[in-house]
């Protein structure tokens, strides 16, 4: 997957790429966990997709540093990667272990917070200073 400033305009390509990566991961996961181990399959597929998301976000950050992108160029790309990863993760998990309405609702809530926090990593306005508790916790953990 080519990562550049225009990634934000290639949502369909990103979704296709992530679906292929999810299918690859699920093929390997099925070799490890049996049909009755649906919880383990779901967990492993989520981990695989999160690893791919982190890799893509890392690539975006590296390109942004190398090419001196502005936050206005960084944020839409990171948000698109986060959104697409969440969509594929939900589809993949549902194929392994179908959601009931409460589990789906809870999972959407779990995915919502990190998605919102992405905006605070790269604020678009200099006059706004918002410190999110999750970011503070993460930075504190990284310091030790």
List the helices and strands and how they pair.
Blueprint: H1 11-32, H2 38-67, H3 71-96, H4 101-121, H5 133-143
Rg value: 17 Å
Series of H and E elements: HHHHH
The coarse silhouette is globular
What count of helical segments does DSSP give? Answer: 5
Low-pLDDT runs of 5+ residues are none
Largest sheet composition: none
- Mean model confidence by pLDDT: 89
- Give the tally of β-strands: 0
Briefly note the structural class of the backbone.
Answer: mainly alpha
| Helix residue percentage | over 70%
Count structural domains: 1
Question: Termini separation (Å)?
Answer: 33 Å
Give the DSSP E fraction (strand runs of 2 or more residues): under 5%
Describe this structure in words.
- It is a single chain.
- This protein is an all-alpha fold and 144 residues long.
- It has one domain.
- 76% of the residues lie in helices and 0% in strands.
- The protein contains 5 helices and no strands.
- Helix 2 packs antiparallel against helix 3 and helix 3 packs antiparallel against helix 4.
- The protein is globular, with a radius of gyration of 17 Å.
